[in-house]
Every structure is written in structure tokens, then in C-alpha cells.
Amino acid sequence: MVVDGHTGKILYSRQGDATRYPASLTKIMTLFLLFDYIEAGKFKETSKLKVSKTAAKQPPSKIGVKPGQTIYVRDAIKALVTKSANDVAVVVAENIAGTEANFAKLMTAKARAIGMKKTVFKNASGLPNKHQVTTARDMITLANRLMFDHPERYRYFSHKYFKYRGKKYRNHNRLLFDYKGTDGIKTGYTRASGFNLLANVRRGKKHLIAVVFGGKTSKRRNANMRAILNKSFPRATARLPKKYQKKKQPVMATAAPTFPVVPATPAEKPYALAQGSAQSSPIPPSPTPKPAPLQNDTGERPQKKGRYHIQVGAYSNRDDAMERLASIQTKAGDVIRGHPPLTTALVEPKRSLYRARFAGFTRSAALTACARLKKRAITCVVMSAE
């Protein structure tokens, strides 16, 4: 399946809803949950994860961590992205949920919450399990939602190499090296699944997300991926249709859960895939009340009732942060009513981020509201106002 990253239109689909074994594409969800826990403040990238005997004895691919050792969260992320380390996947699972079985339940619950209707997870690595299944559509849903909820950490998927304890590992995703515009996201293989690949590619103002399952060899899988991407690029949009730009509303399709794509330019908006169609186009939503005015980091601050914020995303473009706030006002206005939206800038030497927040909460009220947002599959984290 190939999807236009700007509009959600399916440009190519062949058995896009057939169940398949995800293999190591599973680790994308493992990382998604880890990113959620970092965002919630339960881990830092400098936190140490403990290695158990169970994790250490996982079959390859692995980096060979030993029982009793620890691994930094940031190294665990890189090991999963590049080496696709099964031992590290179990380390992450056990440190979050106690056991891999418990973690798999969290994975499946997250899948349902973000609209992956046919996916079931039974482990954190993608090692063979006949009950662990997914579809092409579900995997594209996962990639889009991960990029939208964690744009600052999605960049890990573009890492070509990972050095750890004197060894250098090369990313299995060869498209990062030889297909222009590829910035992630992951490969997978078991005997039962064949060779799988989920890819995200941006060229100029065009953006494609594509997945291939069941290649007989990695070389043939990569060739198939290049072929369907090459076929789809001429049909991809360079920007949203003008009718959607004027509305400045989230773009939704009927009979399908919404899932957003990471905004790389001001033109990109949330979208959904229509179920059961290979050529469905987004349908504009019905009119909604105009959201409250947004304040930016250089404008007048809203009056605060409390000193806590709820952060719902961080983006490289301020307009994208504002769009996220407007979208949540539409979806969950009852939860954040009375709490002004604002963007705050975080300027660093190599990047600038605009954090999308709702202000004026007490700590207890913020925790309650964030919990309600999460039940609606809206990622959030409670932050103290600077």
C-alpha cells in the first residue's frame, strides 16, 4: 500500500487489508509506547533499563546485553531502530510493564486506540507467533500516528548507524542509503512473514508512506518498494487542495478513525484512510464552532488559573502546533474548555520546537484532563508552566 502523506489518499493497494505477520515492524509499536512513557516523564533518554535473563536469552538479531547489565534508553532506541535487537525489545517491555506479555497487551490496546483495527500483538520483538498479525493499512496508520505524536523522536528512524560498546551496527533499511528522500522507518523478517518494509519518503513538497509485506528476498522487497513509490510519486499532491486550505479544519474520511500525519510543512493536516477503498479521497468534515484564539510565544499570554499546562505535541513549525491545538478543541472541547491554547518556543542550537499546550490547570486538574484525553487516543503530558 502507498498513501499520500498530505491527503491520506491511497495511491496503490494490493491486498492492503489482508492479515500478515509483522515481524520486526512490531518494534515500531514498542518504540511508540517507549516514546509515550518518555513524554509522560516516566523515563528520560538518560534513564537506565535493567536487563533480565529472559531478555538476554532472546534469539538474534541482538546486541548481546547480559543479565544484570543496564542500557540507556537512548541506546535502546537506536538498537531497535538500526539493529532491530530482540533482546533490547524485551528489555523495554519488561521495564515498562513488568513482563513482555503485559507489554503486549498495552501494545494491542494502543493499536485499537489509534485505529489499527486488525492488529494483535503478542510480543515486543516480532519473533514468530501465529496470533501476532497486522495489515498494510494498519501499519501505515501506526507510522502516521507515531510521526504526528512524536515528531522530535521519529528522527531516530533516520539513523543509518549505531555504535555500542565498540561495535558499529548498520541500519537494515537500505532505502535510507540509496532511495532519495527516505527518512525511515523499518524493516522486518521471519520465515513466516517474508521480508517486510515500511518506508516514509519526502521529495520536495510531496510525501509518501508505503509498506511491502512478504518479499522473497530483501533485494526483491526493496525493488518492489521502489517500484510502487516511483509509480505513486507522479500522482501525489504537492500541497492540500485549496478547499481544504480555506477551511483550516482537520480533514476526515467517513467510516474510519482519524489518524494524523506528522506535519513537515504548513500544508499538512490530519487525515484518515477510508476503509475498503484503494482510491478514496478525504471528505471535509461538517462545520464546527470556531476555536478560541491561539496565543504564541511572542504574543500576550493568556490569564492562568493554575501553573500547569497540558502539552499535546511539539512541532518544528508554529502553524502546525496551532493546527494541533485547533484539532483537539474540535475533538475534545468539553475536556479543555476554559483553558486557553498557546504555543511556546524551545530554541536549541540545531533546532527549534513549538510546543502545543493548554494552560491554566492546577496539577490535579491537569492530570485528570490528560487522562481523559488519553482515553480518546490523544497523547498528552502534564507540564509545569515556565
The CATH architecture of the largest domain can be named as 3-Layer(aba) Sandwich
Please count the beta strands (DSSP E, at least 2 residues each): 13
Tell me the span between the first and last alpha carbons. Answer: 44 Å
Tell me, what's the shape? globular
Poorly predicted ranges:
243-270, 276-304
- The CATH homologous superfamily of the largest domain corresponds to DD-peptidase/beta-lactamase superfamily
Note the quaternary state here: single chain
Query: In DSSP terms, counting alpha (H) and pi (I) runs of 4 or more, how many helices?
Result: 12
CATH topology of the largest domain: Beta-lactamase
How many separate structural domains? 2
- Major sheet details: 5 strands, antiparallel
Structural class assignment: alpha+beta
Strand order of the largest sheet: 2-1-9-8-7
Assign a percent range to the helix content. 25-40%
Mean pLDDT: 84
Q: Characteristics of this structure?
A:
386 residues; alpha+beta; Beta-lactamase; Alpha-Beta Plaits; 2 domains; five-stranded antiparallel sheet; four-stranded antiparallel sheet; 12 helices; 13 strands; 34% helix; globular
Secondary-structure blueprint:
Layout: E1 2-4, E2 10-12, H1 26-39, E3 48-50, H2 53-56, E4 70-72, H3 73-83, H4 86-97, H5 100-113, H6 136-149, H7 151-154, E5 161-164, E6 167-170, H8 175-178, E7 182-190, E8 194-203, E9 206-215, H9 218-232, H10 242-247, E10 308-315, H11 318-336, E11 341-348, E12 351-361, H12 363-375, E13 381-384
Antiparallel strand pairs: 1-2, 1-9, 3-4, 5-6, 7-8, 8-9, 10-12, 10-13, 11-12
Helix pairs in contact: 1-4, 3-4, 4-5
